[in-house]
């Protein structure tokens, strides 16, 4: 709760809606169950009804989808590949251990100071991504992560021996409007949709990939 309280008290106001990507098979995976439990506690912290939280993971089974709906949560009808616009509403994106392309797509779909300042992202540390990737790879494959780093505030979730594998490398990220406005205008002029043609470790299930698998 302490880790999320700072960004939730930002001038943009606390998020009144939530989107969760990549939760995983919580019927079989204990870590995914813990992540789901934490999501429900976050909604309580936000005083947001479960109906204000939408989820998507192409791995969800029919029984898992039914369980989420029984908890009052909503399911997104299709794979957006992370390209979910906030539409002017302060939104919490819960994306623990998602692929880098998913974060990059989310940033691209909200690429303006006004929109990004309404985002709070709980997911893989952007600082950790920067440290682990060669700068040329980060700028080529995940250019929106690379460009927003100087406009990002990040706070790591405190480690706990019981949940080392569940929330390791997880941080709360938010994007203060004043920091975003200090970035060069050139940063905002480039709005090309990511394609990942040269990416060798793409950790995302795309619409075309899923369609090919089903056929």
UniProtKB/TrEMBL annotation:
An annotated GO cellular component: cytoplasm
Family the UniProt entry places it in: Belongs to the SRR1 family.
One Pfam entry name: SRR1
Name the record gives this protein: SRR1L protein
Protein's gene: Srrd
Occurrences of domain SRR1-like (ranges): 13-174
InterPro entries, per database record: SRR1-like, SRR1L
Natural source organism: Xiphorhynchus elegans
Lineage: Eukaryota, Metazoa, Chordata, Craniata, Vertebrata
Taxonomy, superkingdom: Eukaryota
């Amino acid at each position: 709760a302490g880790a999320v309280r700072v960004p939730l008290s930002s001038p943009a106001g606390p998020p009144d809606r939530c989107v969760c990507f990549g939760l995983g098979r919580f019927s079989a995976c204990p870590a995914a169950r813990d992540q789901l439990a934490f999501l429900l506690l976050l909604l309580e912290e936000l005083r947001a009804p479960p109906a204000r939280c939408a989820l998507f993971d192409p791995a969800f089974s029919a029984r898992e989808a039914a369980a989420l709906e029984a908890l009052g949560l909503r399911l997104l009808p299709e794979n957006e590949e992370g390209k979910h616009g906030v539409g002017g509403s302060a939104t919490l994106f819960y994306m623990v251990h998602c692929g880098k392309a998913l974060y990059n797509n989310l940033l691209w779909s909200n690429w303006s100071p006004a929109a990004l300042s309404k985002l709070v992202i709980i997911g893989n540390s952007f600082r950790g991504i920067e440290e682990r990737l060669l700068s040329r790879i980060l700028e080529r494959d995940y250019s929106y992560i690379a460009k927003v780093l100087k406009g990002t505030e990040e706070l790591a979730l405190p480690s706990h021996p019981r949940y080392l594998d569940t929330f390791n490398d997880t941080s709360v990220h938010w994007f203060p409007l004043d920091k975003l406005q200090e970035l060069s205008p050139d940063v905002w002029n480039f709005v090309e949709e990511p394609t990942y043609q040269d990416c060798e470790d793409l950790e995302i299930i795309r619409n075309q990939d899923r369609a090919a698998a089903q056929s």
